[in-house]
Amino acid sequence: MPRGGKREGAGRPQGTGKYGEATKAVRLPIRIADEILAALAKEPEEIELGTNVESIFRPERTTKLRLPLYLNPVAAGFPAHTEDYVDDNIDLNRHLVKHPDATFLVRVVGESMKDAGIHPNDMLIVDRSIEVTNGQVVIAVVNGELTVKRIRKHRDKLWLMPENKDFKPIEIDENTDLHIWGVVTNVIHAL
Q1: What sign for the dihedral angle of Cα 141, 42, 64, 83?
Q2: Given CB 3.0 to 4.6 Å as the disulfide criterion, which of 4, 88, 102, 173 pairs with 129?
Q3: Residue 107: which pLDDT band, with cuts at 50, 70 and 90?
C-alpha cells in the first residue's frame, strides 16, 4: 500500500475547520515570525511600530451593523434627482473584509502616500491572503521598519514607491530585508 500524498476522502472537509472557510499557509522567516505573530496578538496600545504605520488592529467580526444603502447613487458632478428609497442594508464587515481571518487594520502616520488618498490617522484594511502584484499598495517591513507603499517591479528591479513627490522610492536589492505583510484593500478616513 502506498504511503503519503493525498488520499480520497482523507482529512477534514473543506470549510469545516476552526475558521469555517479555506485557509492559506503563510511561511515566515523564523527570525521574524514570532515578532509578527506577537504584534498581531497584542492590544493596539501595546504595539510599537516604525515608519508610516502607527498601530495594528484585528477587525471586530462579531459586531453586526447594517446600514441602509439608498437606491439612487450620489452624483459627484451635477446634482441628480433624489428619491427616498432604500435598496438594501449592507453589513460593512462583510463589505470591507473579504477574508476575516487574514485581515488586519493599521493606522497611518506620515504623508508619503497622500497622493494615493492615504493620510495621517487613516485606517487601512489589509488582507494577508491576497497575492501581491505589481502596482498594489502594500504593508511591508523594510529592514525592520514597517511602511505602506505601492509595489513596483520594473526591468527586473523591485521598488516601494511613495505617492508624494517629497519622498524618495525605496529600491529593494539583495541587501534589503523585505517582508510583505499584506495588500491594502480599503482606506477609511474622516473628512
Answers
A1: negative
A2: 102
A3: confident
